[in-house]
């Protein structure tokens, strides 16, 4: 099937904005939101389990003094809570939810900024012919999208390997 070319730069811009640009912007927004939720969940779990650990240690001391039959069970709670605190912290560190949230949010916002600058003929697009502005807009957006892949791999490299390079 033969592809038909849009008739004008305006149609090309509409096609790019409603197609590739919209898909990529939605992708980055979705990934930012997903990483934000995961980051907040793991941090809350770390915070609450860290806060509760010393409270349960103190409770364990009190129960020991009272010779309670619950003592054997109660002694495990600080162990479990501290394990959850360390585990949730390490889980977030391994998956890089915080840095990924920031990265995806930044790219989404930069894509939106370029869209507004392009539509308003402002910033780097000021004074350009429509076709030239569209070409620059596409180059800028595609550069942001492509650069994200490179930044992702840099972010995910083990810091020990990065130091050896």
Question: Helix coverage percent of residues?
Answer: over 70%
Q: Name the quaternary structure.
A: single chain
Content-based structural category:
mainly alpha
User: N- to C-terminal separation?
Assistant: 48 Å
Q: Write down the overall mean pLDDT.
A: 85
General shape: rod-shaped
Compute the number of strand runs: 0
What are the secondary-structure elements, in order, as H or E? HHHHHH
Q: Name the poorly predicted regions.
A: none
Count of alpha and pi helical runs:
6
- Rg to the nearest angstrom? 26 Å
- Beta-strand content estimate: under 5%
Largest sheet: none
How many structural domains can be distinguished in the coordinates?
1
Report on this model:
This protein is an all-alpha fold and 165 residues long. It has one domain. The protein is 84% helix and 0% strand. The protein has helices spanning 9-65, 71-74, 76-95, 97-120, 130-156, 159-164. It is rod-shaped and about 85 Å long. It starts with 8 loop residues before the first helix and ends with a helix. The model has no long low-confidence stretch (mean pLDDT 85).
